[in-house]
Structures are given as structure tokens and as C-alpha cells.
Amino acid sequence: MRKRAVFLDRDGTIARDVHYCRRVEDFEILPTVPRAIRLLNEYGFEVVVITNQSGVARGYFTEETLVRIHQHMMQQLAEWGARVDAVYYCPHHPGDGCDCGKPRPGLLLKAAEELGIDLRRSVMVGDGERDIKAGKAAGCRTALIAAGSIVGGEITDPPDYVASSMLEVARWVVGAASQASP
């Protein structure tokens, strides 16, 4: 049986949204995220980060710096007993027309193929419409963390669930999975 996963946007979902986070020291995990990810780990979900990082194409930081930021993120989470199973990122400029940048589902499809994930049993979590669109295009359920971060305040393609924190989303995911089990 293929695995179920929770795909997480990085900026605004896992970490404070810093305009083009280009230094390890600028990366700050949001307060409820370690507990939320640990809960998902305990219930057997793969946790996969799916993030657009056009700052690479724009020359704001290198892929090596991005890898260091992600290593730092994983180390911080590990200190709380939480684990991210994989990180997938799009380094391209939004105008490049790549298939991997959200709202396109390329990174989710790639992760599903490489990690053996059942997208229909998985959830894409993010703080913006492009996260929701990518999740829906891949066939996932979707959850929006709407802690006042939605530009314009309206989403044209509503998510399956709206929450104010990552921990609230994790509880919803676990609860829905428990109800679906025999």
C-alpha cells in the first residue's frame, strides 16, 4: 500500500515568512509547527516540504545556501522530536514556465513517485492560494493556514479545511485519518 503524506509549504506554514529568506539565521520556525509535525510523524504520515524558492533564479541566494537553510530547519525540528522526510523545491523564476513551481503540481507528483505516496490519501498544507491549487491539481485534500496572511482575504478555490495554526491542521488530518480507519 502506498504511503499517505502531508505536504507542507515552507514560508508562512513551517517558518515565519521572511521576504526571500537568504540566510540561515533568518529562518524561524513558527511556534506550533514542531508539535504538529511530531503528531503527524506519530500517526505514520510522511512529511514532505514543497516550496517555491525563486530567490535562487533571482540571484538572491544559492542552492547551497538553500540546502543549509533546510538542514537547519531539519535540525531544529529534530530537537523537538519532529521529522521532515523530504524537501522538494522549485528554484526557478515564476516566468520560466517550469512544471515544478506552485500552483503547478510538479513537485507533489515527483515526491509521490519517488516516495511511493498515494496523493488521494494525502494533504497539501499552505498559507496561500497557489498551495491550495497545487494540492488540488495533484489530487490531494487541502488545508489553508489563514492567520491573516492571505493577500486580498479571498481564495477563489476553497480548501477542504481552514485553520489558524499548523497544530490545528495536524489535529484535523489525524482526526480525519482516524475516522477513515476500520
Largest sheet: 6 strands, parallel
Strand order of the largest sheet: 3-2-1-4-5-6
Number of strands: 6
Query: Could you name the CATH class?
Result: Alpha Beta
**Domains (count):** 1
- Total of DSSP H or I helical runs spanning 4+ residues: 5
Our Rg estimate from Cα atoms comes to 15 Å
Structural class call reads alpha/beta
Report the mean per-residue pLDDT as an integer.
93
Name the quaternary structure: single chain
Give the overall shape: globular
How would you spell out the order of helices and strands? Answer: EHEHEHEHEEH
Q: What share of the residues lie within helices?
A: 25-40%
State the distance separating the first and last CA atoms. Answer: 16 Å
Q: How much strand content do the residues show?
A: 15-25%
So, the CATH homologous superfamily?
HAD superfamily/HAD-like
Provide the low-confidence segments as ranges. Answer: none
The CATH architecture name reads 3-Layer(aba) Sandwich
Question: Can you tell me the CATH topology?
Answer: Rossmann fold
What is the compact description of this entry?
The chain has 182 residues and is α/β, with parallel strands linked by helices. It has helices spanning 33-42, 63-79, 106-115, 129-138, 166-180, and strands spanning 5-8, 46-52, 86-90, 123-126, 141-145, 161-163. It has five helices and six strands; from the N terminus they run βαβαβαβαββα.
